[in-house]
Amino acid sequence: MRKFGIIGYPLGHSFSPGYFNEKFKNERIDAVYEKYELPVITDLQGVIDYTPELCGFNVTIPYKEKVMSYLDSVSPEARAIGAVNVVKVTRKDNGKPYLEGFNSDVIGFHRSIKPLITPNHKKALILGTGGASKAVNHALKQLGLDTLFVSRAQKNGTIQYSQVTDILLEQYTVIVNCTPCGMAPHFDECPAIPYDALSNKHLLYDLIYNPDETLFLKKGRLQGAKTKNGLEMLLLQAEAGWEIWNNKKND
Question: What is the pTM of this model?
Answer without folding.
Answer: 0.91
